[in-house]
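I had to read the description of the data format several times before I understood it. In essence, backbone conformation is discretised, so a fold becomes a row of integers matching the chain in length. I therefore recommend that a typical entry be quoted early in the introduction. For illustration, here is how one protein appears when written out as sequence plus structure tokens.

***
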Amino acid sequence: MNISRKICVVTGTRAEYGLLYPILREIKNHNALDLQVITTCMHLSPEFGLTYREIELDGFQIDWKVEMLLSSDTPVGISKSMGLASIGFADAYSHLKPDIIVILGDRFELLSAASTALVSRIPVAHIHGGETTEGAIDESIRHSITKMSHLHFTTTEIHKKRVIQLGENKDNVYNFGAPGIDNIKNLKLLSLKQLEKAINFKLSSRNIMVTFHPVTLEKSTAGEQFQNLLDALTLLDDVSIIFTKANADTDGRIINEMIDDFVLNSSDRAVSFTSLGQLRYLSAIRYMDGVVGNSSSGLIEAPSFKVGTINIGDRQKGRVRAKSIIDSKPLKEEITNAFKKLFSKSFQDSLKHLQNPYGIGGTSKKIVRVLSEPNLNQIVKKKFYDL
């Protein structure tokens, strides 16, 4: 009798779940695989929208919830949250007995998920390794997860080479592109009328999406940098603004409070969301004139819509970029100049033939095919791969 391989996917945030969605679908529909889902961190927090409910509404069973997020975004609070996460993942893995753990990205809760899997001798498949974000603690976390993982699914050839450079066996490193692009290709996105009804907000002739997170390797810069962005936004005429709020990073609450104040005083042209969900988020980007802030989606997903991005500060420094990215220092004057370029006819015309360096889709099927193939007994014990 054939026994299904148990593939356990860990998700902690709305954004990362959106990228994992097509992979979850492929695993669920695979005859030889048994999908397990662990939710943690922001998904279980009322402050961040209890977004585990969106996962259930999408038809996925949540097999375990790892409660770990303290009501604190200080370094001490986050460090303690990571400790709680390790305890929770130890219980989850012991109960679920997965054959492979799948994690995407570089957040602190995933470091706990990977290190607990390492001690539990469970192989880890890591997605989006080899990337660089020099302004965030995610940089070190991402590479640490790479060293604790056994299968690697990178998004560009550059990232694939970096993972191998870290000593990972080239036979276990695959470049299939970014899985988030599958959503753009596969989801039936909302029409303009449907979107405006879904977000209860009417778009104007020019529109931007703003997502700004703290630069976690800088001390106490979140408020000042975001205020400079808000000051630049106040100078824009006839532009509607959709804010999506910051993650549970150090000083994230400072940004979210500033968003609330701005929207309260500019409700005629601005709206904010703790979580738009993948369908509304991607549908909204399609109608934007630009994506603004320092979110990875501005670099990875936005180019597939041929939408320009103003990337502010160092949080995404080092990532592979499409020609649609306008880099700006976190200063009011620089951001203002970036807006002038973004809205210029020459720049908008240049986007018509834009190619996304993160691929064209089909990533999820390729990842799941590999997850169903390897001999797990051979990948748990790793040798350092010398160049």
